[in-house]
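FAQ
Q: What does a multi-component entry look like?
A: The components come first, one per line:
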Amino acid sequence: MDLFLDYFEFWQDKFDSILAYTYEHLIISFVVIVLSVVVTVPLAIYMTKMKNEKIKNLIFNIANVFQTIPTIALLAIMIPILGIGFKPAVAALFLYALLPLLRNTYTGVKSIDPGVVEAAKGMGFSTFQRLFKVELPVALPYVMSGIRVTTVYIISWTTLAALIGAGGLGDLVLAGIGYNDQHMIFTGTILAIMIALLLDLLFGKFEKRFSKV
Amino acid sequence: MKKIVMASLLTVLLLVMAACGGNSSADGGEVFEFGAQKNTDPKVMAQIVKLLVEDQTAHEVNITEDMPASPQVMAAIDKEDFDFALLYSGEVYNNHFDEDQVEYTTNPDETLEQAQALFGEKYDMKWYDSAGFSNQYSIAIEDDFAEENNITTMSDLGEYAGDLTLGTDNSWIERANDGYEGYQEAYGYEFADARGMDVALMYEGIANNELDVVTAYTVDPQIIEYDLKVLEDDEKFFPPYDASLVARNEVIDEYPEVADIFDSIVGSVSTEEMTLMIREVDMNERSTAEVAKEYLQEKGLLQ
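Then the predicted structure of the entire assembly, as tokens:
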């Protein structure tokens, strides 16, 4: 009971700053998700049409390389170019999100039954008609599951933004570790989990609705 | 032939298992565990302890590096996973004890006494007197800027603070006693913007003019490297973080030869010496073992 009261008091005490950290976290994740989906999903779909295996491999390899750069190193490289705070955090997270989104979308669209595409061809659909009327609707569940997985990653990775002065829930977790405050660590973690679950739920609903059409 | 091979393999295996079993060193002594936080000064001190213990006794010291922070090191001492560590007196104000147990003061002696008594009892360990250096918060600005405007104390900075961006670690803004809020009360001014970040990136930030003021730690070699000026804490606001070695009572009671070594280290490493050693490790990328060995040899404590 005491534990609960203590924790309640912590919330009363820190409510404003917890709200600010959560808001920062949401904004950063949101911008990263939108940016990476807008850039990566069309690229992945285009890549499924690409005949040149070499270029395809090159793109995957570039995305792979970004994934392997240690966070601190990547952030340090960005300071002279993008400074400190929101911009370098978004840029770093965007680079990290490339690979999972690219892979998942690419594999999803690739796994469409070729028979469906052939049938559409047989019905005299043009390439664009085929893409928008047949392939994309069929691929949507795959694309969406790629976005869902990556979104959960991004929410958790956004805690890294705290390393470069962009705030977010990571700030709360790291402050708690440095200052020996379990309440801060717990709150930062649980809020990040809740955001991830909520967004996943939301995307799930969205996916269901659109795949029925 | 096959039998001989099998038999010799089995022997080797048994020997390996015997070597792994129990915590005994090659010379028949114990293997002690030193837990070091992720900053460089505990890592260097761990090497100093290791070199001295292995030179003067039959025991060995195994070092675990990069623990996130002091509370995690203490938790490991509590579980008897670590025997030794380097801890800081000011840690006593970090939410470990209730307010009626610990009295907040920035007096170094009183802070050390409280840490020794309270932590000593809580974790059944001996908290030695300071090893000689202190790793505490301070406010640093670029040397040029300080010269130009004749700023030497933290109070002097107040006049310019409204235009300056502060970079700090992730916890300073949230700290109760010695954090940003307390600083504003003590000095009566705030900065235009204050951002928490990774300490290494904080220095990158001031080097690239993205930040104007940083909360430097007194042993940070970047202070020398980037020509920063540490301002005098004229209101005595920041609590001391005098570094002390700690050892579990069980260990030093049973092994007086180890206790002697710990006694001999008290007061022997100055803040300047530690800063220079950290500089060798962090900036010149040398190993902590090499730097610690060189230091002990220069002092004539090691062959």
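Q: Is there any commentary attached?
A: Sometimes. For this entry: The two ends of chain A are 51 Å apart (CA to CA).
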